[in-house]
Amino acid sequence: MNLNSERTAEIYSKSIFMQIGYAEHMNRLLLLVIIVAGGMIISIPLLSDQLANAGSTKKIQFTQTITSTQDPGLDHSNEQMAIVLPPNSGSIYHGSITYSASQPVQIVILHQIDKGDSKGQPIWTVDGNTFYALTTIDSNSNSGSLDFTGSAIGLHSTNSSQFTATVSVDGWIRVANPQVIPSATTIQPIENYTIKFSKSTIPVTIPLHEGIVDGKTAYYIITDSSNSLVANTISDKQNWKVNVSPVLAHVPSTSYGNMFVFTNGIAGNGTQGFQDDVLSFTPSSKQYSPLSKVVEASWNIGREPFTLNSTQAILDANMTGKIKLTITDTILNTPQIVWDDGALDVRANKTLSDQTSYQDGQVLDVSIDNMTATFVGHRGWGPDGKTIYYIITAGTPEGPAQTMKIQNIPSLSILESSARDLYHFSNGLKSAGPFGYQEGISSTQSGDSDYSPICKVSIITWNDPQNAKILENKNDIDAEKLTGDITVQNASVLDKNYILDCPIIDNP
Q1: What residue spans define the domains of the chain?
Q2: Contact at 8 Å (CB) between 219 and 208?
Q3: Using one digit for the tens of pLDDT, what is the confidence trace for 409-428?
Q4: Class of CATH domain 56-177
């Protein structure tokens, strides 16, 4: 496979933008709505008609067919939601909705409230910090009509079966701050292009390591190391390349756990050939991080080695003189795949194509017998326009993480200053990116001195989609931003930036 085929994109079919079926893209669009809802509404098909400017009030009028996806609200993972009008901080919608759905659905209206007012009433939240009072109208019918007022409105089902609905909305949005929502552009039938990349997604099989957390077995992968010597040693042992990321050596001390690696004692499958490595936490703990600081544990002369299976047991053995602990300067990226009371979701549909959704999970297979985990490798562009692939193991905040079926790891937010930029597109050229448009661009790649496996996601929007063209590198982004053809903003949920553990895979 030629990873340097930066111009493998082929413009292969003209199409009419309005003829592209919205329903097949709703999962991607819902994720985009969730990501930008905390800051502004981007002009997307959910608000496909012009928001007519009337001071601080804007007109909403459209008919749209939408498909539900997993409800992004906390504790709603087994339910379905189709967001019709997304939350927009401080603003209120009012008007009427008429709908026809493929199965009986509820109408849900959200009302933004202070966190302190959330007790004693039904609430909805994606991150446990911003709360919405929840009004549910259960007509037990496939169709209906309703006048509404609220911060957001959607169709909802309490079971996990996906549904499709056609909705018509005629109403207004009263904007708390008129600068928050830019004038949206009416989507007209314009000529657009689809770009098709060779192998936009690929399977990436990575060796598993067996570790111990509080006496229980955990399986993890090692993708990156701050220390080049350690990276080479682990690469040779597992026969799979570990990237060098010098940036990891400078991450905050609160952003990683400890990984105790034994340098002598009982022979085994640990990183240095002795007993299994011991890690501090599993993803079920709020203290968990995919990053681990290597602490070497050595049995002192005259002491009889035995298996130490927890952090506490190791600390006790150190206090009693049985072992010596040496804190190294090495930070590893060690995302856990299977642990005592959990595991990353495995995709039901394991067929990869240029239509593979980011929302169906990131793991294709886990084999404990073969000690491997197979991930979806997503194609992207490096900072110089070369092809890269990356996997996604965890993210934060909660809502987008649930939607992508990855673990929500709050500690990743601490790593924002140590993250590389990953740019995704909200409109423009149709392709296999997470929102149905061009694949993303990374600000660094493996081998760069500032490469990091941690990503901070930004959204690129073409101000006039008719001017969209392929952007292949960071210089292209900067040039289009300078001319005013694109807008670049942080992807965020309720003012929390979207951070991923998304290491680049150097040898797919």
Answers
A1: 56-177, 203-339
A2: yes
A3: 999 999 999 999 999 998 98
A4: mainly beta
